[in-house]
Amino acid sequence: MLVRPKRILLIISGGIAAYKTPDLVRRLKGRGYSVRCVLTQGGAKFVSPLTLQAVSEDTVYQDLFSLNDENQMGHIQLSRDADLLVVAPATANIMARMAQGHADDLATTVLLATDKPVMIAPSMNVRMWDHAATRENLQTLTSRGVVVIGPEQGDMACGEVGMGRMSEPLDIAATIDSYLNDGRPLQGKRALVTSGPTFEAIDPVRFIGNRSSGKQGHAIATALAELGAETILVSGPSHQPLPSCVSVVPVESAREMLTACQNELPVDIAVCAAAVSDWRAADAAPNKIKKQVGNAPPTLNLIENPDILATLSAPGDKRPALVVGFAAETEDVIANGVGKLERKGCDWIVANNVSADTGTFDGEFNTVHLITRAGTNDWPQMSKSDVGRRLAQRIAKHVAGDVK
Fold first, then answer.
1. Which of 12-16, 298-302, 352-356 has the highest mean pLDDT?
2. Interval 22-41 mean pLDDT
3. Which residues are the active-site residues?
4. Residue 64 in this model has a pLDDT that exceeds 50
5. Which of 64-73, 110-119, 126-135, 336-345 has the lowest mean pLDDT?
6. Which domain covers residue 114, as residue numbers?
7. Do 272 and 309 touch, CB atoms closer than 8 A?
8. Does residue 234 sit in the same domain as residue 158?
9. Is residue 2 part of a domain?
């Protein structure tokens, strides 16, 4: 029986990197994929439909209201006939329109109508990439399960140097190939991720907390789900968008977080990315503590919170096969991470520097060190989404027995 090649719908938007897309089409076809192109009005300024038609050996679609195209392949069918939709280059403009649900041309209509996985390869000026609007749009898209390839750091057509350059066609093709053939290596596995801070009540108004935003934990949960794991996200108070592809259990205190984690056992993988408060008030006041003029400030009697990482790492029938902890440090990052690995009994520690000058808390980027029993791997600075994907891929390789 003949097996049809997997079909990729390549959407080419109006960025200078569009000139690389014929090479991307050739590389994908060389790997055995069928490629059909949707070319936006802006994309046609950089690459011609005739070139794309020649390399793809298929019709190039451009106009939402083309009677001929709609007769041959309606936009709904066009979106669903593919196994994967890839937007390359993905400009800041099309990312914004995707995030907002626009459907004002063929490309955005196809993206809104699809029920298939979507990948984007961003390409834009470094200032556009760093702009708050783009960061928010990126968070929205990744929370919906969109997979992001790149971008890279390097020289740009505008003459500037920085993050925002589209990944090379060879790398994009390899990522697509991996996703379509090994893209769900964690299928059948259950993963538990903790994220965000915990708030420990002092009275009904005040609490002990920390600056964790939950961005990194949410990104890890999303990445594990993208690789096929049934993922449960136990999150302390956070303003991050809730990933649509995971089950979310909201909690507030460390004790609530521990209970929620234990209720989800057994799981195969546990990643403790939450910044859990180490202490809580022994007796939270039932009413707001009032300041009395002339009186000394109240004294807080603090007691230790349960250690969630150590509890999940303890030997037993319900211990996950892989337990990953986080070590947020402000000094001696690796040494403290190694010490935490030994004290807690977990399998891996992801250590990072959260000093004020790093901008890690509530920032978009992170620089981490993966500490295992076999040694330490220093990762370069990357977005928290990329850290999540890289960690999830490392976990998948561990589960497959490829790495320790």
1. 12-16
2. 94
3. 158
4. yes
5. 64-73
6. 7-182
7. yes
8. no
9. no
CATH code for position 131: 3.40.50.1950
Average of per-residue pLDDT values in the chain: 90
27: in domain:
yes
- Quick one: three-class SS letters along the chain? CCCCCCEEEEEECCCHHHHHHHHHHHHHHHCCCEEEEEECCCHHHCCCHHHHHHHHCCCEECCCCCHHHHHHCCHHHHHHCCCEEEEEEECHHHHHHHHHCCCCCHHHHHHHHCCCCEEEEECCCHHHHHCHHHHHHHHHHHHCCCEECCCEEEECCCCCEEEEECCCHHHHHHHHHHHHHHCCCCCCCEEEEEECECCEECCCCCEECCCCCCHHHHHHHHHHHHCCCEEEEEECCCCCCCCCCCEEEECCCHHHHHHHHHHHCCCCEEEECCECCCEEECCCCCCCCCCCCCCCCCCCCEEECCCHHHHHHCCCCCCCCEEEEEEEECCCHHHHHHHHHHHHCCCEEEEEECCHHHCCCCCCEECEEEEECCEEEECCCEEHHHHHHHHHHHHHHHHCCCCC
Q: Which pLDDT belongs to residue 401?
A: 85
Where is the domain boundary, 182, 202, 219? 182
Residues 166 and 17 in one domain: yes
Domain-ending residue, one of 139, 161, 182: 182
Compare 20 and 366 and report the one with higher pLDDT.
Answer: 20
* Domain presence at residue 40: yes
What are the pLDDT digits (tens) for 308-358? 999 999 999 999 999 999 998 889 999 999 999 999 999 999 999 888 777
**Is the same domain home to 166 and 198?**
no
Torsion-angle region of 228 (φ positive above 0: left; ψ -120 to 50: alpha; else: beta): left
Q: Are residues 26 and 175 in the same domain?
A: yes
